[in-house]
Amino acid sequence: MKNTQFLVTLAAMLVALAANAQRGGPPEIPEGVSVTADIPFATVDGNELMLDLYMPSAADDPPLLVWVHGGAWRAGSRQSVSTLSFVEAGYAMASISYRLSGVAAFPAQSHDIKGAIRFLRAKAGDYGYDVSRIGILGTSAGAHLAALVGVTNGNAELEGTVGGNLDQSSDIDAIVAYFPATNLTSILDQSTPFGLNLRVPSLEALFGGPLDEKSELAHLASPVFHVDADDPPLFLLHGDQDPQMPINQSHELHGVYKEHGLAVEFEVVHGSPHGGPAFFDASRNSMVKSFLDAYMRGDH
Question: H or E stretch including 15?
Fold first, then answer.
């Protein structure tokens, strides 16, 4: 009993710490990068959704990346951007807000992200980036949403109408997912007791009720069930010591991609837990940049 209570308390503390970290101020802007902050792209039920646009000053018409923040679907901020190295390397990047689970249940989050992508396509001429190909990146819960949006091009149920611009596409051309959830019907069976104490309340908040009553939503929210032969290339990164998001979640999506003969790379970050600087060191950033260059700038 004491061990169980300890785990519950520890889990709550870690969620609070993660939430506080996600609410931190904007990232330090490196030389050669400019930011236009607080660009509104939609208002939904009185909630104003905004994005921050990071642009490389040395690149004309740079390809666009969309950053989706983490925070267990219930915390976090678009100001939480783990790396601007890709902007320094010549990509534009929009870090977007979406309704958190305390405000709206799934699939609101997908609707908001797809609405932001349509807005970004509609406004490309105003801001000067290239939307012929758009990549999406995210960490943790943000990686789950990035993967889900990326593998559901054209899915009406997950598209929504947030922000309008319905003449624009929300299609994604490359996905980078850092330690994501990918199968919300299997994640609890794969979780440690510590992980369950984090994941159960987060998922119940995301789906708006007890998990045993939300199986259809869990299926809809799981990228593994949407993969088909037309999906964009995928780069996964996951720590093999992750106590919060089981690495089997990335293995599942990796396996489904391979079954469909799709382009996929999987970098296991040995010895790493849930996030941390190893995921964004020079070596991993170089790997991800090479992937993005191949599918965002190359002939694939």
Answer: helix 2-22
281: helix, coil or strand? coil
Q: CB–CB of 274/214 below 8 Å?
A: no
State the Cα–Cα distance between residues 265 and 30, nearest whole angstrom: 28
Pairing assessment for the beta strands 174-178 and 234-239 based on DSSP bridges:
parallel
CATH of the domain at 260: 3.40.50.1820
- Asked if 116 contacts 42 with a C-beta cutoff of 8 angstroms, the reply is yes
Query: Residue 241: which domain range?
Result: 2-297
Which has the closest alpha carbon to 88: 267, 286, 228?
A: 286
Answer yes or no: are the C-beta atoms of 182 and 249 closer than 8 Å: yes
Mean pLDDT of 192-211: 90
Closest CA to 99 of 123, 121, 120, 78: 78
Q: What is the pLDDT of residues 12-71, one digit of tens each?
A: 444 444 443 344 456 888 889 999 999 999 999 999 999 999 999 988 899 999 999 999
Taking only the tens place, the pLDDT of each residue in 68-116 is 999 999 999 999 999 999 999 999 999 999 999 999 999 999 999 999 9
User: Residue 211: which residues within 8 A CB-CB, separation 6 or more?
Assistant: 188, 200, 203, 204, 218
**pLDDT confidence of residue 17:** 40
Here the tokens at position 74 are 């219930």
Q: Which tokens go with 12? A: 């709550």
Residue 177 amino acid letter = A
Helix, strand or coil, per DSSP, at residue 155: coil
Q: Quote the number of domains for the chain.
A: 1
Tokens of 80: 């939480």
Question: Which of 30, 141, 116 minimizes the C-alpha distance to 65?
Answer: 116
Q: Across the chain, which distance is largest between two alpha carbons, in Å?
A: 61
The alpha carbon of residue 67 and the mean position of all alpha carbons in its chain are separated, in whole angstroms, by 7
pTM: 0.91
C-alpha to C-alpha distance for 47 and 45, rounded to whole angstroms? 6
Omega before 243 within 30 of 0, i.e. cis: no
